[in-house]
Amino acid sequence: MDETTSIGPTLRSRREQLGWTQEYLAERSGLSTDYIGRIERGTRTASLQTIMRLARALDCDPGDLTGKTNRVQPIGDSSVLAVRDAVYDPALLLPGPPEGEPTPPRELMRTVEKGYGAYFSGEFGALAAMVPRLLTQCRDARHAHGITPVAAPYAHAYDLAAALLVHTGKDDAALAAIERAVLTAREGNDEFRPVSFLGTYAWVLLHMGRYREAESLVVRAADDIAPRMSDTDEPRLAAWGGLMMQAAVVTATDHRSDQAETYLAAARSAAVRMPQEQRRYWISFGPTQVAVQSTHIHTTLDQPDKALKAARDVQPNDLLSIQYGRHLLDVAQSQVARRRTDEAMVTAAKAHELSPEWFRHQRVADAVVEEIRRRKARPPEPLAAMLTTLRGN
């Protein structure tokens, strides 16, 4: 099953704005005219890889075709645009002394912890309310205390901004935020913290269709910290293994299955040397994460039987809420591919229950739910609830 829902009307509109025929778009994108016609008529959905090719041919962002956008329910006067504006804050160009007492670095880190709690619970509105003020507090604290004691919370504040901005379709701002996270972390005194953000950087590049650049970034970073065969240094193993796992995901999304399997095997070799699942810098790595990403990779490569087999090794208690939710969507997608529709509905409903706000921002959720809807004459209650979350009807 393709990962995304129909982009037909948007594709047609963009093509016609440029004055192009379907034949010309087919030539530029390397797709067939018939295939493009079926996408535009809505009789064929487009895979993520196809959307990336069409977006590049049309010189637009993939999100412009998929309609990925901000669907966060604001809390008070919070807004995703305020998060974007905090990343692009003009005050960074001419920094001055803070107006009030600067926030101690330890208190900033406590706020960061709350931010990750909101993010991994899928509470995007709460996160949007938190991040702009946190970034301002970090900037003021840097002016007062210097960068070294503030580098860790400041970098994580930018990481939180990047994560939220990706989910809400603002990839350019997300890329700026995660770049600042990496550069800020490098001014601290932790060798592996900057490396941890490179995985997020590659994740943003993946959303932009920049697969080769994402792969190159994480592989080069992994080479710099590669452990020895007998190495038991857990921070190094987790950082290196996490980068290998990200490389596997990127190459699988680019449908380079052999390369993805090679990177995944490398990540697995690091995970087996870990006594248990590790969570450092709010990034998880260990046997369960390898099983989660194996499931995702085989789902992406249209290998549902392998995906469902890999899912058996996942320990849900090792996962945070939306980590488990994203895994469940992969399982549901593979169940749909095997025509196990009722099981897929139950699995997707579990993901929906974890956080409807997060669920409505997941492109794969839309695809899975739409496919289940097509197969059901009357939508049962769980399916109706998911449709309401995704489409408001």
Automatic annotation (TrEMBL):
Entry-linked InterPro entries: Cro/C1-type_HTH, Lambda_DNA-bd_dom_sf, TPR-like_helical_dom_sf, TransReg_Diox_bact_type
Keywords, alphabetical: DNA-binding
Domain HTH cro/C1-type: 11-65
UniProt-listed CDD domains: HTH_XRE
Domain of life according to the entry: Bacteria
Stored PANTHER family: HTH-TYPE TRANSCRIPTIONAL REGULATOR, METHYLPHOSPHONATE SYNTHASE
Protein name: HTH cro/C1-type domain-containing protein
Organism: Salinactinospora qingdaonensis
